[in-house]
Write a structure and sequence with these properties.
This protein is mainly α. Helix content is 66%, strand content 3%. Strand 1 (172-175) and strand 2 (179-182) form a beta hairpin.
């Protein structure tokens, strides 16, 4: 699994985002199940080597998490993958990129406030400009005009911001239709929803229809763009669940370190 932040990886990161509301519901249900399933928690082993591995995995709820993973993969193989394949076949690539751009543009306010919370004014300024340019010149985010003029997309969310503050991640979780997470990032996800303006689209004037269309298209595009990656992990990994857990945890920590080490001047590159 390649986490290099080139243009293609950025597009994949955008596209992997799925429906905000459906994921929030799934996450809430999974957390409730977690609290009710104490028997599905692995107790710490007594052997020192096994205990070290246990702590490194940070997955005390592994029995429950694997059940949630199996549910998602059943849905993926029986519904999401076929729908995603049909989406790729039927929808031209430029249109699919526009769907991903819209999803990312409407998420920029959450990224902006996360950048501010992390104490990174340059990143916050770039995010503000991305939102302003793409909502206007980019026709509501259909086109990534901001990227063309040097304001490239970057990843920040409330969970990452709390990580830069030193807030512990808590145990690893796998939430159906949301994917890998932990206690800190689950809380951050809820905060992110409150900072995403598309969630406040009012009823009437066909805006609710737009909201449903936006969420549905974003969900399908997210899974469609991940098909090759998921298939690759399943084919080449002896234990896809463990591989995904390790890769996700390493990537999240790498993103936190990137934010901490981003000490660029507050003026943009073109101004210097």
């Amino acid at each position: 699994m390649d986490f290099r932040q080139d243009d293609n990886a950025i597009r994949e990161t955008r596209s992997r985002r799925v429906s905000r509301r459906s994921r929030a519901l799934a996450g809430t249900l999974a957390l409730l199940a977690l609290g009710a399933c104490g028997s599905l928690r692995n107790p710490p082993p007594t052997d020192p080597d096994d205990l070290a591995d246990y702590k490194a995995a940070n997955d005390p709820y592994e029995p429950l998490n694997r059940k949630m993973y199996n549910i998602q993969m059943w849905a993926y193989h029986n519904a999401l993958r076929p729908i995603g394949k049909a989406w790729i076949w039927a929808i031209p690539k430029p249109v699919r990129h526009s769907v991903a751009n819209i999803a990312e543009t409407w998420r920029e306010p959450s990224v902006f406030f996360s950048d501010v919370g992390a104490g990174k004014p340059r990143r916050a300024g770039d995010t503000f400009m991305r939102f302003a340019i793409n909502m206007s010149a980019g026709v509501g985010g259909i086109f990534d005009v901001a990227g063309l003029v040097g304001y490239n997309q970057h990843e920040t969310d409330p969970g990452l911001t709390m990580g830069t503050w030193g807030v512990p991640s808590g145990p690893y979780l796998f939430l159906p239709f949301l994917g890998p997470s932990n206690f800190r990032d689950s809380a951050g996800y809820g905060i992110s929803q409150g900072l995403t303006p598309i969630n406040y689209v009012p009823r009437g004037y066909e805006l609710l229809t737009f909201n449903w269309a936006y969420n549905t298209a974003g969900t399908i595009q997210g899974y469609a763009s991940s098909i090759d990656q998921i298939d690759h992990v399943e084919q080449d990994s002896l234990d896809p669940y463990s591989y995904i857990r390790s890769a996700w945890q390493q990537n999240r920590q790498s993103q936190i370190d990137t934010i901490k080490n981003d000490d660029r001047a507050t003026t943009p590159d073109w101004y210097n």
